Structures are given as C-alpha cells and as structure tokens.
Amino acid sequence: MTQAAVPKAPNFIRQLVAEDTRTGRFGHRVVTRFPPEPNGYLHIGHAKAICLDFGIAQEFGGRCHLRFDDTNPTKESQEYVDSIKGDVRWLGFDWGEHLYYASDYFEQLYTWAVQLINGGQAYVDDLTPEQLREYRGTLTEPGRESPCRTRSIEENLDLFGRMRAGEFDEGTRTLRAKIDMASGNLNLRDPVMYRIRKATHHRTGDTWCIYPTYDWAHGQSDSIEGVTHSLCTLEYEDHRPLYDWFLDQLGIHHPQQIEFARLSLSHTVMSKRKLLELVEGGLVSGWDDPRMPTLAGLRRRGYTPEAIRDFAERIGVAKADNLVDIAHLEHCLREDLNRRTPRVMAVLRPLKLVIENYREGQVEEVEAVNNPEDPAMGTRRVPFSRVLWIEQDDFRETPPPKYFRLSPDAEVRLRYAYIVKCTGVVKDPRTGEVTEVRCSYDPTSRGGDAQGRKVKGTIHWVSAPHALEAEVRLYDHLFSVPKPDEAEDWTSVLNPHSLTVLTGCRLEPSLKAATPGSRYQFERQGYFSVDSVDSSPSRLVFSRAVGLRDTWAKIEKGGR
Ligand code: ATP
Ligand code: MG
Fold first, then answer.
1. What's residue 3's pLDDT?
2. Considering the domain boundaries, does residue 230 fall inside one?
C-alpha cells in the first residue's frame, strides 16, 4: 500500500480497537470492511470512511474487505461497482482477495430467515407498504401489531417459500422480524427483512424476486466475513440494537459496531440522491464533473490521493456531526501540490507586449526554476523574444494606488528575464481598448537583480511565437451558500459562476509534453491539471484545481 507516513493522532476508534487487540477479544485479529451500496459514485465523505476502514486495518496489521451492499437491484449497476473499485484503488487502498458482495450471501440469508421463522421470530405479513407505515407508530406512540403476527410457523414457512417462488406481486407481502411493536426504538418494531422486487439484479439476474433489506443483510454479511470492527456513520447507532438482536438470535459471530460522525462539507451536497439529480438533470456534466464532490470529480479537477488522505486524517473522527469548511480540503491540496508540482508560466487573459528595442527575430533562453520548494526538481529553459503575452490584469492605463505592475512610464520585471518600461499603447480605434502595450527593456537587467536595480513588481509572460494555445477552465464552489441542504430548494442555490471557460490562453512551450492528469502551478494563478477527458495533443484543456489564495490558513490563524 502506498501510504504516506503521517503520524496518527489518537481517536476513540483507534483506542477501542487497540483495547480489543490488547485483551484478545477477537483473537487479536482486526478485520474491517468498507461497504458501499453500488447506487452512485463515491464522494469525499466515503473517502473519510475508506481512510478509516482501511487505515485502522493497516495500523493493526489486519485486513479490510471491500463489500458491495447490493441489496436493492432497482438502483444499482455494474457501472457503479466498477467506478467504486477504481476510486478505492486510486485513493491508495487494496482489498487484496477480499472483494465481496452481499448478493453472494442471499442463499445463506434466506436459510437464516427460515431459521428465524422456525424459531417463531419472523413472520410473513400481508400489510401493504402504506399500512406498514401506519402500524409502525411514531416516536411518541407505540406501533400496532399486525393481524398476521400470530400466523403459525407452518403457514409462515409456506408463504415465505411461495414469496421466493414468485407467486405474489410486489408490495403484497413482506417477511418481518417479530420483536416488539411497543419498543421505544422504531427499528425494533418488527422491521421488514424481505420485500418482493421483481427486478433483475446486476449480479444475480432473475434468480431472486425477494430481496433482503439493508438491515437484515448488513450485520449478517459482516458476521459471515469475520469482521471484528464494523465502522459506520452515526445514523446506524439506533440500528445497532437490531443488528445485535439478529446476531444473538442466530448465535453467530458478533462483530463490534462503532459509529462515527459523517463528513459534511460546506458549499456542496453529499447525498447520492442529490448528486444523481445533478447528473441526471444536466446541472453538471457528469459524475466526474470537476465541481462535484465525487472522487471522480476531484480526481479530474487535479486532486491527489495524498491530499485527500491527509484531509481525512486532519479532520479526524468524532461522535458529533459538524460541517467542515471546503477551504480546509482545498488547503490540503494546495500544500501537497506546492511541494510537488512544477511551476510554469501561463497567460490566461492575454495582452500583447512588444519590446521596441529588442531585435526582431532574436530569441534568448532564460533559466527558470521548476520548484523553489524542491531544488531537486531543477530548472528549465524558457524562450524569450520581442513579442510576449502578458496578463490583461497586469497592465492599467490609469493605475490605481499601489499598483506595482505595468502602466505608462512604469517599470516591471518580467519573471526570470529583463526589466521593461512602458513607453506607450496601441488602441483599437473603434473601441478605445488597449490591444498592445509597447515598452523598452534594459539589456543589463537580465535574470535577478544583478545591477542592484529594484523594481516593485514582477509579472509572468509567455513568448508569443513560441506559445501554446489552450482552453482553461476555472472552477468555483458548486453552491453559493455554505449549507445548500438547508435551502428550501437546494437547486436554487447552485452557484451560477461555478465554471468560467477561458479560451485562447497562452502557455509556455514546455507544456507541450503535458500528459492528461498531470498537474502544474501556473505562477501567480493557482494549480492546474490537464483535463483527463477533454484534453488532447491538438486541443489542450486545463482545469484549475485550486487557486493560490489560502483562505483556510487565514481561518486557522484567526482561530488561534
Ligand atoms: P446516502 O446516505 O447518500 O444514501 P450512503 O452514505 O449510505 O449514501 P453507502 O454506499 O451506504 O452510501 O456508504 C458506504 C459507507 O460510507 C458507509 O459505511 C457509510 O457510513 C460511509 N459514508 C457515507 N457517507 C459518508 C460521509 N459523508 N462521511 C463519512 N462516511 C460516509
Ligand atoms: Mg447507505
């Protein structure tokens, strides 16, 4: 496994597992699992769970299974299975030979259900889904017992067998556990174990027309696999007594369930239902749209697995839900990319700069540092010539106060090259827009500040005849408010400016060799990656992963 050696902070899960390995409760073994339902792509919340499940196993010399909880054939598909496997691997984790599917246990689960019927602990109910809801009661009122609750074991066995054989229509019958309709815990009010679904399953095909509920499948699947610690999110805390009840009735291996708070991230949504709605409604370009909180989207955006694992470790685990600022995630990416990516010069909104006293046709190569954070990354040569592209923002005809870039008669350093002085502009006679900035250069000022000449501003540039052209996509938060889930209509708070497409951007020629997915810092602009879907040698497309301004570092400082 390729895991950076980050020191692990103690947390309540680590402590519980450490205690169990110390006492030998599970024979000193640690087996965990990550149990996604293949009904969507994985998101950053799942990444937190993956890092915990695989991380804990790794730390204690155990193993972690990947198990698909594929009990709902109408919403699941092979596409999701494949994407989930790819995403877990990309994050840097490996389940080895321990790939499982709840659907592999359908026969065993059926046998156990029959066992419960025989023990008088389960019965076939004829209530409709509406009636089931009605009979269930509320938090303040006890539920009512179904008239079918007293059915004989023989009748239950017969009906359950016929449910399996496909004799009944969807919604006409269920198998329920016989527990306690007056329980204060709604999960214990005779929960449904099987429902009829005449649907084709992506793995078992048409073998089954009754499917176990998640509640009936989950704990038993963990047990079959010998899971010792079953980590899950807080909403399953109230299900734990039910899982315990099932395991105790069956008398099989009993894993320890431990709940932790799910990750909520600001300025995005994380429910798979909502993410699916974004995709199907065409509100984003797909599951891998770089604005999505999915791992596929983050990867395409330029996120590294290292940054995501670091984020998961830093946010830690807690027993109470809280909202994590998306700036924290961006901070982790920035830190990682700052160390690792080469820096290059790219002009996103080009304006022509002509150096009047530089000989036409002359080309010099200036030496540029690839990454000042890492001298081992070396230097490269960047061509310099009479006509350059600079950023429109780096020139003002009427400069505001404290503007240290180019303006008439002002001087600026061209990064790694000469100091230039603005001598005039060329304007579009029709619109009055500045189309070209003219300047002269000081031939003695090349490189650093050898002559002791100090100028306040340094700007980046690209030599016009050598420049590559590219499309650059700038992304902002998908939602314009921190908690879109709390808006009356969550789609109404989508950020209309979440994507800006710039065409005709100019890049230094070293980027010719940039391969899809590779990442760079564009000096003064942020971190960018070559779009893995739309970029090709004939049409370069870059995505901005994250800007340079670190709002999280500021928040953190302010908090101290
Ligand atoms: P949804 O709530 O959108 O229906 P889910 O979160 O239940 O989806 P699963 O595929 O069941 O999706 O999740 C697999 C595992 O990932 C579960 O163990 C779940 O607890 C964990 N998980 C899901 N979302 C988060 C989150 N936001 N933070 C931490 N863990 C999560
Ligand atoms: Mg779930």
1. 46
2. yes
Q: Any catalytic annotation for residue 274?
A: no
Kindly report the average pLDDT of the chain as a whole number. Answer: 95
**Residue 558, pLDDT score:** 63
Is the separation of the CB atoms in 166 and 181 below 8 Å?
no
Mean pLDDT for 381-395 is 97
| Domain housing 113 | 107-213
Cβ–Cβ < 8 Å for 93, 50: yes
> In ligand 1, which atom is closest to the CA atom of 235?
20
**Catalytic option among 48, 272, 291, 413:** 272
For residue 435, being part of any structural domain is answered with yes
CA distance 560 to 557: 5
CA distance 137 to 221: 29
Active site residue 262: yes
CATH code (residue 404): 2.40.240.10
Domain end residue (candidates: 411, 442, 460) = 460
- Per DSSP, 356 falls in state T
Atom of ligand 1 nearest to the CA of 274: 3
Indicate if ligand 1 lies below 6 Å from the C-beta of 272.
Answer: yes
- Render pLDDT for 194-244 as a digit per residue (tens, 0 to 9): 999 999 999 999 999 999 999 999 999 999 999 999 999 999 999 999 999
3-state SS string for 511-551: HHHCCCCCEEEECCCEEEEECCCCCECCEEEEEEEECCCCH
Say which of 262, 415, 438, 446 is annotated catalytic. 262
- Among 39, 50, 51, 233, say which to mutate for ligand 1: greatest number of ligand atoms within 8 Å of CB: 233
Give the model confidence (pLDDT) of 468-504 as tens digits: 999 999 999 999 999 999 999 999 999 999 999 999 9
User: Is residue 332 domain-resident?
Assistant: no
Q: Is residue 339 part of a domain?
A: no
Q: Find the ligand nearest to 75 CA.
A: 1
